[in-house]
Amino acid sequence: MLNFPKHLLEGYGRYLGKGFVRYKETHERLAVYGQTPEVMVISCCDSRVAPEGIFSVGPGELFVVRNVANLVPPYEDTEGQHGTSAAIEFAVKGLKVKHIVIMGHGQCGGVKAFRENANAPMVTGQFIGRWIKLLEPAAISMACMPIDKADDPQLAMEYAGIRQSLKNLLTFPFIEEAVQGAALQLHGAWFDVGSAELRVMNPESQRFEKAGPDAPGIAE
Amino acid sequence: MLNFPKHLLEGYGRYLGKGFVRYKETHERLAVYGQTPEVMVISCCDSRVAPEGIFSVGPGELFVVRNVANLVPPYEDTEGQHGTSAAIEFAVKGLKVKHIVIMGHGQCGGVKAFRENANAPMVTGQFIGRWIKLLEPAAISMACMPIDKADDPQLAMEYAGIRQSLKNLLTFPFIEEAVQGAALQLHGAWFDVGSAELRVMNPESQRFEKAGPDAPGIAE
Amino acid sequence: MLNFPKHLLEGYGRYLGKGFVRYKETHERLAVYGQTPEVMVISCCDSRVAPEGIFSVGPGELFVVRNVANLVPPYEDTEGQHGTSAAIEFAVKGLKVKHIVIMGHGQCGGVKAFRENANAPMVTGQFIGRWIKLLEPAAISMACMPIDKADDPQLAMEYAGIRQSLKNLLTFPFIEEAVQGAALQLHGAWFDVGSAELRVMNPESQRFEKAGPDAPGIAE
Amino acid sequence: MLNFPKHLLEGYGRYLGKGFVRYKETHERLAVYGQTPEVMVISCCDSRVAPEGIFSVGPGELFVVRNVANLVPPYEDTEGQHGTSAAIEFAVKGLKVKHIVIMGHGQCGGVKAFRENANAPMVTGQFIGRWIKLLEPAAISMACMPIDKADDPQLAMEYAGIRQSLKNLLTFPFIEEAVQGAALQLHGAWFDVGSAELRVMNPESQRFEKAGPDAPGIAE
């Protein structure tokens, strides 16, 4: 007897009856021609921030990495298995995506663990503790050159983490080259779980601004 | 001027007008009480296989890792940043999820790269090449103890990768303990892009069987 | 008192009375001029597959390595004592052999141990377990690009091991050079213990075909 | 077109017509019940000293390692692939052989290379040079406590190598235990290519004595 979660199979049944009917040709085309997404999103594992839902996209549109706290490690040419870097390489060199979006969110548990860990190292698990060390340079930048108001350090760290991941992306030679050649654009975004407010980082000011179809200054 | 992809912002606009209306209370509850997903899904970055879509779930239901080829590395108590292991630790020790689903899919580019790499090492990128080495034990198991028909080696390797990730999950002491204590169940699933057929691994035979709300033997 | 096995000394007595009489001049010539074998055979330690018997050759014809599972390691320019590589170097650079035959066989205990080990690591002994890890790339190739029918995984792995050893031979610079210059040919062969059937690998299809003096397509 | 050496296939044809006819039942029995050799022989790759010929044995009788200069490395519990140690482990722990014969021979090229190398290091190939370093303790023993007459240093070194390999065998815990328990006996032997004279090491005097079915003191 299969013990697969029943509600997932029921949800799958609903997808067959509705989503798949809508996307049937898309599915068939994607199976025949393969995927050609133009956007890579690096977001958090958090169950509340699935990028496909927030951006209302169907199959084939977003190439998605999800890891704890939507982090990009810096380029590192060593042996070892770098999952996020492998996905980035696949997206940029293989799929030639035109955009990479680092998508953070409010109440991020990974960011929260990092902040608590700074006070009491190793209260977090061993793997989590090591992974979120990737936020250290973000914290240092934030302490040295604060961009955001300091009244919400959790939010400020979420923003700082997004900025750091954008910086780290540029340490990959093939990304730096693609960005220079205007073949690739990098973006920061942040999503509020409670209000569903989306904010996008202004690349010049590095500040996060409310975004939406009607927000001012959005690219046509 | 923000140059954020316009179609994503338009999609976000649609979400605000429809999905968010539907899930408004869920969003607010999730913001106040935090996330309590019961299921973790480890699936591929591939743009065609977003688990939230396939299982028709809303915010708060799935804690999702997405990496190339939906791989779980074996437990390894070394320094270094293990993104997938960190997410697993967060889900099992922090969120106490009740299910982990390894969700593979057809035409997986990561699996394909691994198979091509076996032929001509290093044709794939450096990060991809190293990451998909995680499939090596899967290939060895598959060669030594074939479970699937050999007429589709790509499919057989996709299945073998899922089985290997399930094995690797059990190398984490806290997972082994949770599974022993019946607090956690591990599942394998596979999705066909073209037909949207879902197959679930039978834990006894280790074979993948067509699944759905009406398929026989599904747990009530 | 010598306790040397009596039946071996009796067999030696028979050799003196028969084989040596036949090969006396050969022995003397080989003692005076040294050995000049044209063929190196790398076969298994298995007591059932002595290459001199199968090919009915007398003294001086085959330079023979016998190790568990007839394996050739890849070229590796590190310190350490590589017995098989030393023998290969001796044969190719010293004796200038014209052919190297990798000679596998059915029911190979080393291959069997590797297949069982994939299931339950370390059930085999420590030295055996490490030695047969040399079969790992063979298993990976076999899983990624199956050449043989999967209905006999033991046989398929025996074949895959022979193919891998042939590949590994070409990683030795002096072999690659000799093969390029047509001074050396590499061959795969497989022997069935029960029926004494000999199969030879077709270098183009990489498949093993029944061989013999009357088999089609044998080089004159 | 197969380019397998024609004379080997012709020899195989002779084997089918003669040897296999003689050993047909043996082959079938060995295929059904597996091998159960009572003797392991570690001899040289040299084309002139195939142990099956010298001892007139058929299939299934000798488990044979053949490496350059019939060397046994000392027991070494490190990672790495020790081919000869793996074969010894297979024979003693797996097959439970009752005898191990280290079988040296005259005009051994490996011993000769070691002796030349002592004068002009690295004249020999890199793999050979490292492999025959295993003879160093033999040379030291021989220099410090000469057992044999010094008028033939090549022969004396051949003998010393056999003695050293016998010593090295006893460094394997499972061999030491089997020898203590009288489950296993170790023997040294040496074969002269030109005259086919066989000499066996007297375990007490450590000297090599002419052996044969009629030689005095042979175990009944």
From TrEMBL, chains A, B, C, D:
<comment type="function">
    <text>Reversible hydration of carbon dioxide.</text>
</comment>
<comment type="similarity">
    <text>Belongs to the beta-class carbonic anhydrase family.</text>
</comment>
<dbReference type="InterPro" id="IPR036874">
    <property type="entry name" value="Carbonic_anhydrase_sf"/>
</dbReference>
<dbReference type="InterPro" id="IPR015892">
    <property type="entry name" value="Carbonic_anhydrase_CS"/>
</dbReference>
<dbReference type="Pfam" id="PF00484">
    <property type="entry name" value="Pro_CA"/>
</dbReference>
<keyword id="KW-0862">Zinc</keyword>
<keyword id="KW-0456">Lyase</keyword>
<dbReference type="InterPro" id="IPR001765">
    <property type="entry name" value="Carbonic_anhydrase"/>
</dbReference>
<protein>
    <recommendedName>
        <fullName>Carbonic anhydrase</fullName>
        <ecNumber>4.2.1.1</ecNumber>
    </recommendedName>
</protein>
<keyword id="KW-0479">Metal-binding</keyword>
